Amino acid sequence: MLMKFKAIVIDIDGTITHRDRKLSLTAAAKLRALDIPVVIATGNVLCYAKATAKLVGVCCNIIAENGGVIIDGFDNDPIVSDVIHECEEAYEFLSSEFNMEKLDSVHRRTEIVLRSNFDVEKAREVLGTHFPNVEIIDTHFAIHIKSKKINKGTGLFKMAEMMGLETTDFVAIGDSINDLEMLQEAGFAVAVGNADDFLKDIADYVSEASYGDGTVEAIDYLISSGLI
Ligand SMILES: O=C(O)COP(=O)(O)O
Ligand SMILES: [Mg+2]
């Protein structure tokens, strides 16, 4: 008998949006119509993710800041990982050499996010092994200086526990490097057509279509195959 997955965990940028970050209305409608829980998992800050979840209509189990911030209800207090200090230190260390522009730092509580206008490879080299718990990742939407201790996979683990589910009960859908651990942790992994190759390589299903259309295609596939 086919395994019925019990929930979906899905990325925002590049997965339920168009290339330019505008929401895909067809993807939103598809997610809203599902009769299983849909968890939003994003590198964006919590308030951005909450508004997205509310407007899409899948409110409100949310993994924000790449797993650093988690809520299981719109009005509930977030669980916030204590990992910002080492990211701040790494940022200070790098900012003497690189001209870096912080994004939405007022709302961000667990990582530093930077506009994609500097040489990331070079920054990784300079960072070297000075901060063994810190990594720099590029989602194609922004650069994140984040703790290696958290990611969307660790976020999914916590969220599953809060929902009384296993991580393997989830279908995970994403497009880039910050979705990797979440796709590995989930029971079924979907990469949309615009996803990075390494994500497609580990996915159970890769949609032909890209961006929000890829999510619509993947959900149609999951329903028609009896997987959800
Ligand atoms: O925050 C980013 O860089 C990308 O956001 P996402 O995780 O929703 O794709
Ligand atoms: Mg994304």
CATH architecture of the largest domain: 3-Layer(aba) Sandwich
Oligomer: single chain
N-to-C span: 13 Å
Spell the H/E element sequence: EHEHEEEHEHEEHEHEHEH
- Stretches where pLDDT is under 50 for at least 5 consecutive residues are none
Bound molecules: 2-phosphoglycolic acid, magnesium ion
* Global structural class: alpha/beta
Give me the side-by-side strand order of the main sheet.
Answer: 5-4-3-2-1-9-10-11
Helix amount, in percent?
Answer: 25-40%
Summarize the biggest pleated sheet.
Answer: 8 strands, mixed
Percent strand: 15-25%
Q: Which outline best applies?
A: globular
CATH homologous superfamily descriptor of the largest domain: HAD superfamily/HAD-like
Total helical elements: 8
- Radius of gyration from the alpha-carbon trace, in angstroms: 17 Å
Topology-level CATH name of the largest domain: Rossmann fold
EC number: 3.1.3.18
Enzyme class: hydrolase
Binding site for substrate: 152
GO cellular component, one term: cytosol
